[in-house]
Amino acid sequence: MNKVPMTVQGAKSLQDELKKLKTEDRPRIIQAIAVAREHGDLKENAEYHAAREQQSFCEGRIKEIEGKLSNATIIDVTTVNANGKVIFGATIDLADEESGDEITYQIVGEDEADIKANKISVSSPIARALIGKEEGDVVEVKTPGGVRTLEIVEVHYI
Prior knowledge:
Elements: E1 4-7, H1 8-37, H2 46-70, E2 72-75, E3 91-96, E4 102-108, E5 119-121, H3 125-130, E6 138-143, E7 146-156
Parallel strand pairs: 1-2, 4-5
Antiparallel strand pairs: 3-4, 3-7, 6-7
């Protein structure tokens, strides 16, 4: 399987979730199954079936996170000397040429993307247009809403 880029923060977030699932959620669910079993007939025991469903979800999520982490190439942008170029993990201040609005995006891995937190996937149209560019460059981005012209105001490696 191909390696997937991931920021240090993204990897830490997944590792924290994995730890919580293994040390808190899994034992709690196992206890809930044990309690539900004590109630007798398992065929008609809604508590038992709900706990088993939770267990299935929890175990599936553990496997998913472990898979993502094993296929991740963790990139610490603070250690890369990119000489002002936009690279994976960089945070970019942009100015929209038409509206004059300023926006800041961080380019992250697909699993970390969260537009509400201004984290865009490395495979998004905006990120693909920005990669390799420098401060002061103007890029045209084809978005679902039409073509946008963006100027790179500043590039940060944080």
